[in-house]
Structure formats: structure tokens, C-alpha cells
Amino acid sequence: LRRARQVDDGGSAPAGGSPGTETSPTPPTTPDPSPLGSFLGVTASDSDGFRLTLSRPTVAAGMVTIELRNDDSGPHDLVVRPEAGGAEVERLDPVAPGAVDRKDFALVEGRWYLFCSLDGHEAAGMHATVRAE
Ligand SMILES: [Cu+2]
């Protein structure tokens, strides 16, 4: 009996403390798996001529979610193609004033040219370039 009690006491002492909670500190914030980001915000506006303003100059190559936010009073669309030329990758259909639309684009490493394909808009300044790396 005595032995059994001693064994029990010995076993319950460490368990009776604060198990786990004090020995495991708050885990550090999970690092961003893609520091370059796989989200690109594009804002179409007419603040000083037609413009496309990007949320970042560089994205991680691969699937990139591109969001077009239309801050202008007229519709705008978005076409994405390699800067060096070539067929468009994909496009976002025209977005109404004040509206937002988004789509996933497959961007391999390199520079990508984004522009609005509505008549005269690209020539008026509605274009931008983003690098995927
Ligand atoms: Cu436009």
C-alpha cells in the first residue's frame, strides 16, 4: 500500500502542475508562404488622365489573382499579355463604375503588360506593367 501510494504521488505530482500550457509558448506568426504575393490589385481611375494603378510592382510567378477596381465614372476592362508581345492570356470583362471584379491568371516569370482594351483607353494611359518572379 505504501509503495503504491508513493508511486501514485510521484506520478501525480508532475501531472498536477500546469501541463503543457507554460512549456509551449505562443507559436510564432506563420511566415507568408509567398512573400512576393499572389494577389494583384489594379485600380482604374481618371484622376489625372486614364490610369491603371497596381498594388505592387512584383508578384510571385504562378497563379495570380488580379482584382480590377473601377474608381472611374465609366466602364473599364482588363487584358493581360506578355510585355514582349503575344496573345493575351485572359481578360476581365468590363467592370461598371464603382464595381470590382477578380480572376485568376497564370503568369509565368517575366514582365506582363496590363491594359484596358476599350476604345482609346490604352492610348490615353490606361496601362501598366507587373513583373512575375
Ligand atoms: Cu478603360
Your description of this structure?
With 133 residues, the chain is mainly beta. The protein contains 1 helix and 9 strands, in the order αβββββββββ. It has one helix spanning 2-16, and strands spanning 39-45, 51-54, 58-59, 62-70, 76-82, 90-95, 100-107, 110-115, 127-132. It has a 5-stranded mixed beta sheet with strand order 3-9-8-5-6, with no helix packed on it. Strands 2-1-4-7 form a 4-stranded mixed beta sheet, with no helix packed on it. The protein is globular, with a radius of gyration of 27 Å. The N and C termini lie far apart (71 Å). Copper (II) ion binds next to loops.
Mean pLDDT: 84
The number of E-state strands comes to: 9
Q: Can you write the helix and strand succession as a string?
A: HEEEEEEEEE
Strand order of the largest sheet: 3-9-8-5-6
Record keyword descriptors for this entry:
133 residues, mainly beta, five-stranded mixed sheet, four-stranded mixed sheet, 9 strands, 41% strand, binds copper (II) ion
